[in-house]
Amino acid sequence: MNVQGLAGITAGDTAISTVGKAGVGLTYRGYEIHDLAEHSTFEAVAYLLVYGEYPTPEQLKKYQEKLVTLRNLPEKIVTLLNNIPESANPMDVLRTGVSLLGTLEPETSATMDKLVAVMPVILLSWFKKQEIKNSQTSTADYFLEGLLGKKPDLVFARALDISLILYAEHEFNASTFAARVTAATLSDVYSCITTGIGTLRGPLHGGANEEAMKLIQLFSDPDEAEKGLKKMLAEKKLIMGFGHRVYSKEDPRSPIVKKLSSELAEKVHQQKLFLIAERIEKVMWDEKKLFPNLDFYSATAYHFCGIPTLLFTPIFAMSRLSGWSAHIFEQRENNRLIRPEGAYIGPAARPFPPIETRG
Predict the structure, then answer these.
(1) Residue 231 backbone phi and psi in degrees, to 5
(2) Cα separation of 9 and 269, whole Å?
């Protein structure tokens, strides 16, 4: 059976997550996403994904402390990051930083934890042009403090923490599947992760939250947004942040981040921006019956936290790294080289013309 984009094709078994299957919206190793968003932390979720079981309080404490100790960057990476131009795509920065780390520190049993720990360090060190050091045990606290230069408000740190949970894993999405293809060749972890980063860099996978923010900021009020969006739809322009290849009725993550965005908008007194986003959501449903996915309201939530738009997709990568790691391990446990077939549509067999008969 030839299906474009492998839509609806089951490519393998996984015990890591469900995505819209059997009436279940989204679970990580059996835990429902709403429960994780309400009661968990990103570090606990990362531990769950990578190690297979939800951590005990003592395990979580040791894991958090371990991540803090692993945040140091080799001097050669710091030098490299200082010399990458500000105009670079930050996803290229992450990909390059991880790749160089792989040449300096061969893979060990601690490599996955090291990558979870240093991904935000790589991003911040390049963006701020200095290595960011603090003792915050939370990845969200560490990132916001390093970015903003001050200890973040608990509301903003928790909002980012929840976002990292929501982005952490999503079954056989493009970047995860690409990482598994690399893992299936028995390549090293660094190659698998750089594969994932490179795939997420593509605007049809990552980048939707950045494009959503640019769209929302085009308009000065909800009425202008409605008028402008209808015009864009009439011109058949692509609107990012809506619909999903797997979910048919709702992205179960979207209501969670929408609620966060609403609360943050009120805190920073930017309710109008949130109302513009809501009007865009309404128009997209009324006109196209398309629902917002995780990326749409994540854009405004990040904006209200003071995060620059160009860092939205790298934050996605910081989070999804934990899911990639889980899938790399799972692929290795029951490995078979991933090699699909292609449906040939080229010319029929034909004789080869000798050089003297050409031209």
Answers:
(1) -65, -40
(2) 46
How far, in Å, CA of 126 to CA of 107, rounded?
Answer: 24
Is the domain spanning 14-201+314-333 CATH 3.30.300.20? The answer is no
Q: Which of 170, 244, 303, 327 is catalytic?
A: 244
Q: Looking at the DSSP assignment, which residues form a beta bridge with residue 21?
A: 24
Answer for the pair 115, 189: CB distance below 8 angstroms, yes or no. yes
Superfamily of domain 209-304: Cytochrome P450-Terp, domain 2 (1.10.230.10)
Cα(192)–Cα(176) distance, integer angstroms = 9
* Catalytic site includes residue 92: no
Q: CB count, 10 Å around CB of 272?
A: 13
Q: What is the pLDDT of residue 116?
A: 97
Q: Which of 141, 170, 295, 303 is catalytic?
A: 295
Nearest to residue 166, comparing CAs of 260, 100, 87?
A: 260
Per-residue pLDDT reduced to its tens digit, 331-342: 999 999 998 888
Contact present, 117 and 71 (Cβ < 8 Å): yes
- In the residue annotation, 170 being an active-site residue is answered as no
Residue tagged active-site, from 34, 153, 188, 205: 205
Please report, for the chain, the start and end positions of each structural domain, with discontinuous segments joined by +.
Answer: 14-201+314-333, 209-304
Whole-model pTM?
0.93
DSSP 292: B
Mean pLDDT is lowest, of 1-5, 102-106, 196-200, 261-265, for: 1-5
344 φψ region: left (φ > 0), alpha (ψ -120 to 50), beta (else):
beta
Query: What Rg, from alpha-carbon coordinates, does the chain have?
Result: 22
Active site residue 269: no
Closest CA to 222 of 300, 286, 281, 178: 281
